[in-house]
């Protein structure tokens, strides 16, 4: 007999600095809908943390979709925020859709909730049975975002994911989960990669994944790049930098580390603005390219070849090759959903050294 209603608990933010649980009830499923029970949900130390501490631009600016600009004084969202998150793995427990089967485990993107109503036309992807199911948190959004960054590195529309990185010297600034997955993608597709950070926990995770590292507490990343990569008598530095740490200082480092006329691909969420960046310096004098990457926005000219599903499939391939190492070295904490408030607080204020924190339901 169909379930008449679904009680849901979600993790969000009640006020700045106050993560909290929210309870609601959703009605019975409609035609072609199905219900999933959440198994795992990954916490983000970037965008989610900025909603906790009140620094996300959506809290002070509206997004003008038609013009593609932020509008100050017209907040897109406000407190309380009853749902955060975008890295979920869930099991189908009831269905009125012929497209999914009961018991199927899906990678989805709907937030830290105990369950979710969905339709097959919303993005989801079966988690392959040969993958540890917790790794499915990367298939729906974060993995495709990092794979998309490689597409943005190509000088022309890319037919293959490695076209923009193969045989190139690549620096990745920041060894959070975005940085680690991006670095793994680049190394997997033939780049010479080094990851820079100063956090011992994150540097250890990078080394555990087989990625060379620069400890910025001992050596500035730009000095390493200018010494390691020499292209001729006057040009030194990385061919390409993936900027994955949300500080102005890190973006300035990325611009300083790349060779003249090189490219910086920016994936970061900036919680504290960009006061440390002066575009009249390296960016201008070395003729650099700075390109931002966001989920769901593919490079111009690639839409006929690439989409979210193909990027997710590339993530599956990456995790088949490196999944055990990611599980061992990058997923540093798995905590019960009942402790989600404490976990989100710890991630937001950085009081506990972490790479990836996962909520288990």
From TrEMBL:
<keyword id="KW-0479">Metal-binding</keyword>
<keyword id="KW-0862">Zinc</keyword>
<protein>
    <submittedName>
        <fullName>Threonine dehydrogenase</fullName>
    </submittedName>
</protein>
<keyword id="KW-0560">Oxidoreductase</keyword>
<feature type="domain" description="Alcohol dehydrogenase-like C-terminal">
    <location>
        <begin position="178"/>
        <end position="296"/>
    </location>
</feature>
<comment type="similarity">
    <text>Belongs to the zinc-containing alcohol dehydrogenase family.</text>
</comment>
<dbReference type="Pfam" id="PF00107">
    <property type="entry name" value="ADH_zinc_N"/>
</dbReference>
<dbReference type="InterPro" id="IPR013149">
    <property type="entry name" value="ADH-like_C"/>
</dbReference>
<dbReference type="InterPro" id="IPR036291">
    <property type="entry name" value="NAD(P)-bd_dom_sf"/>
</dbReference>
